[in-house]
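Email to the structure team, subject: RidA family protein model.

Hi all, the expression group asked for a predicted structure before they design truncation constructs. Nothing fancy, just the tokens so they can compare against earlier work. One-line instruction: predict RidA family protein, return tokens.
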Amino acid sequence: MSARDVVFPTERQALYERNRYSPAVRANGFLFVSGQVGSRPDGSPEPELEAQVRLAFNNLNAILSAAGCTFEDVVDVTVFIVDPARNFEPIWKIFPDYWGDAPHPTLTGVGVTWLYGYQFEIKVIAKLPASATLSAS
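Reply from the structure team: attached below.
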């Protein structure tokens, strides 16, 4: 197997190395991004729900940017929400600030009971722009 083409956001590589996973991997013209949570630079959770969701999107956007992408390049989204009956509406109200205009990516929402101290996680697949694909080769 060839080495993975890993993308690290600025200033967070140590956090990913400590937790033993890659934030994103380029493969076959796509960027596969690990689930992003509202973690502070030290990896601890942002306690307030809205701030946590915004931080998760900011962390996601940092990875997309490091790969030469934006949210406009995202084709598939999976979100994980603890206690979706209570948290879905407050979380969903934040999405328009980050989501962009139609056509929107596909979306799968999953209700979960535990996210390691977080209430929200977002995982995406993005199509790499031609310029990002060429620079990664």
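Residues 67 and 95 are 22 Å apart (CA to CA). The chain has one domain: 5-136. Ping us if the truncation boundaries need rechecking.
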